[in-house]
Amino acid sequence: MGDDIMSYNGGVALAMKGKECVAIACDKRYGVQNRTIATNFTKIFQYGDHCFVALCGLATDVQTVSERLKFRTNLYELREQRKLKPIVLYNMLTNLLYERRFGPYFVYALVAGLDPKTGETFVYDSDNIGAISDNVNLATVGTASDFIFGLGELFFKPNMNPDELFEATSQALLNGVDRDSASGWGAIVYVIEKDKITLRELKGRQD
Amino acid sequence: MVESIIGIRGKNFVLLAQDANTTKYGILNMKFDTNRLFKLSEHCAMLAAGEPGDVVQFAEYVGKNIQLYKMINGIELSPYACANFTRHEMATSLRSRNSFLANLIVGGYSTNERDQQRVQLYSIDYLGAMVSANVVAHGFCQFFALGIGDRFWKEDLTVEEALAMLQIIVNELGKRMAAYPHCVFVRIIDEKGIHVLDNMYPEKIHVAKPSEGELQTTADMMDIHT
Fold first, then answer.
1. A-B interface: how many C-beta pairs under 8 angstroms?
2. For labeling, which of A47, A79, A144, A163 is most exposed (least CB within 10 Å)?
């Protein structure tokens, strides 16, 4: 660990696509280096009906970036009189991060969303200075992201239905965080479909 | 780091405890009745520990601004609002010329009936990361308070149970911290406001006298004086 700022607080998040559904999941640990302080610190924030953002990294910046993004999305909805689309949210987030190009926020971000009319799914990720990615099948951020990428690639199948997607996402997350001391202590999974959003809490190993 | 601040959430109250020592040069005990509690509103208070100047400057700045809000708008901010305001100020100052090395605990009782959770307790570290928990602490006492809290905290804690848990924590601090907390100030915040409870003291440690048997050496045991 040493003084690596991205692993000071720990935490991990993952997003995966299915057929007309997306899942986004994160762990619940809040710690300071090797000490766990709280087990209710979720890193997923909702902006709009079907748009979710997960932020992993330094906890203070997770909270600051989510607040600043909320401010911008609120103004967007007031001015435009319409709800956000995932691609718009993603562009706002990357713009927010790039504004601090030479004094960046220490968060990596994931955006997951759905278009409720067409069922088109969106999963994007970003580094801490707002690098734009393509619309990918699977994305992870955080201290255990490498472990979860491997498991995610293994469990991912194209066109999964919501239940299969939930299973794949939760198994990838739970088994990945078991290999990382800075993540874990429970998890939450949002499965976003055209007509409903399901939030499930996973218990997992409480260490 | 050697200053202890602890918060415990109870059924309809928040217990805020702080050690009352001021140490200098890592070794001298300057003062035994230091106050670390800053009142934010009638039902909300903040414990602050860390760099001495920063603690007072930041806490007074936040406290006065919250009181100003009350004067302008005529309503008291809930502990949740106070904590979020404090966190925002801390996070803004982090990347500016003046950052504050102060760890805080904000706790209180919300007077807004529509709040789901009336008893609110938050921990804010010097970087501006805020989290809500049932037992919160900052400094070296974190190692003891959080572990003891995991063991003894339960839903709907009564005042007596919370004070018993706090006494266990204070006894551990007295036993294991080189910076011995001579006295711990205890305050409680419930729907009636902020009240000061009796001071808490660590239990006296009783150590067995060494036995005379230990004073014998092997040479003594060899009987050479027959």
1. 43
2. A79
pLDDT of residue B219: 76
Chain A residues touching residue B129 (CB < 8 angstroms): 9, 30, 58-60, 62-63
Low-confidence ranges of chain B (pLDDT < 70): 224-226
Q: Is beta strand B44-50 parallel, antiparallel or unpaired with respect to B102-109?
A: antiparallel
| Contact call for A30 and B129, based on CB within 8 A | yes
Of A40, A63, A103, the CB nearest to B129: A63
Domains, chain A? 5-202 (3.60.20.10)
Could you say which residues from 7 to 46 on chain A have a Cβ atom under 8 Å away from some Cβ of chain B? 9, 30, 32, 35, 37-38, 40-41
Question: How much is the pTM?
Answer: 0.92
Q: What are phi and psi of A141, to 5 degrees?
A: -140, 155
- Please report the domains of chain B, with CATH numbers, ordered by start residue: 5-204 (3.60.20.10)
CB of B68 within 8 Å of any CB in chain A?
A: no
Residue B147 CB neighbours (<10 A):
13
Residues sharing a CB contact under 8 Å with residue B116, sequence separation 6 or more, in sequence order = none
CA dist B37 and B45 (Å) reads 7
Mean pLDDT along residues A1-5: 72
DSSP string, chain A: -TT-GGGSS--EEEEEE-SSEEEEEEE--EEETTEEEES----EEE-STTEEEEEEE-HHHHHHHHHHHHHHHHHHHHHH-SPPPHHHHHHHHHHHHHTTTTS--SEEEEEEEE-TTT--EEEEEE-TT-------SEEEEETTHHHHHHHHHHH--TT--HHHHHHHHHHHHHHHHTT-TTS-S-EEEEEEESS-EEEEEE-----
pLDDT digits (tens, 9 = 90+) for A145-178: 999 999 999 999 999 999 999 999 999 999 999 9
pLDDT at A2: 57
CA distance B43 to A129: 41
Percent of chain A with pLDDT over 70: 99
